[in-house]
């Protein structure tokens, strides 16, 4: 079963409504927002990180970045780094940028930045650069049950 099919099964089993869109492949949050026709902050950016010796998934709004230093302090981790593309592939079977915000599908603990809840709907790649899902944010929280907290910070202007 593909990751997309796993997500559909998870949501269908909980009677959660969602919309699927097929589109040209997208590789950045900005491209994804543009092709979906939605605001950038509604994107649920899923990041896999190695914290000390364990892997975790962090889900943040697409217009923000992971607050690495603050997250390390908050959880008492000495080291935090993004997983390499090879590690992401090994853990998920997917390429970076196609990871859905469901760490539970990969036996990863999921942490979600609570500012994502400012959106009524979230949008994310569903295991494929050319497939997106849009769903109610509160349904995502119910389906994934991530740990909520402050893990993201504003992206500095370029």
Describe this entry's structure for a reader:
The protein has one domain: YbaK protein (Alpha-Beta Complex), CATH 3.90.960.10. The chain is 27% helix and 31% strand. It has helices at 3-13, 29-36, 68-75, 85-92, 137-144, and strands spanning 18-22, 44-51, 54-61, 64-66, 80-82, 109-113, 121-125, 131-136, 147-149, 152-154. The strands form three sheets. The chain has a five-stranded mixed beta sheet, covered by helices on one side. Strands 1-8-7 form a three-stranded antiparallel beta sheet. Strands 4-10 form a two-stranded antiparallel sheet. A hairpin with a 5-residue loop joins strand 7 and strand 8. The protein is globular, with a radius of gyration of 15 Å. It starts with a helix and ends with a strand.
Keywords:
five-stranded mixed sheet, three-stranded antiparallel sheet, YbaK protein, 10 strands, 5 helices, 31% strand, alpha+beta, 158 residues
Distance between the termini: 41 Å
Mean of pLDDT: 95
Low-confidence stretches: none
**Structural class of the secondary elements?**
alpha+beta
Overall 3D shape? globular
Annotate the secondary structure layout.
Blueprint: H1 3-13, E1 18-22, H2 29-36, E2 44-51, E3 54-61, E4 64-66, H3 68-75, E5 80-82, H4 85-92, E6 109-113, E7 121-125, E8 131-136, H5 137-144, E9 147-149, E10 152-154
Parallel strand pairs: 3-6, 6-9
Antiparallel strand pairs: 1-8, 2-3, 2-5, 4-10, 7-8
Task: Give a brief rundown of this model.
The protein has helices at residues 3-13, 29-36, 68-75, 85-92, 137-144; strands at 18-22, 44-51, 54-61, 64-66, 80-82, 109-113, 121-125, 131-136, 147-149, 152-154.
């Amino acid at each position: 079963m593909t990751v997309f099919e796993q997500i559909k099964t998870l949501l269908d089993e909980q009677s959660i409504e969602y919309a699927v869109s097929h589109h040209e492949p997208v590789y950045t949050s900005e491209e994804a927002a543009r092709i979906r026709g939605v605001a950038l902050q509604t994107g649920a950016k899923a990041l896999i990180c190695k914290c000390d010796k364990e892997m975790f998934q962090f889900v943040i709004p697409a217009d923000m970045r992971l607050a690495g230093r603050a997250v390390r302090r908050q959880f008492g981790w000495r080291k935090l780094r993004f997983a390499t593309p090879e590690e992401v592939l090994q853990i998920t079977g997917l390429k970076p940028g196609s990871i859905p915000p469901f760490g539970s599908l990969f036996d990863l603990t999921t942490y979600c930045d609570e500012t994502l809840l400012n959106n009524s709907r979230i949008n994310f790649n569903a295991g494929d650069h050319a497939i997106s899902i849009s769903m109610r944010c509160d349904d995502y929280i119910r389906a994934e049950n991530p740990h909520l907290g402050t893990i993201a910070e504003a992206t500095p202007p370029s």
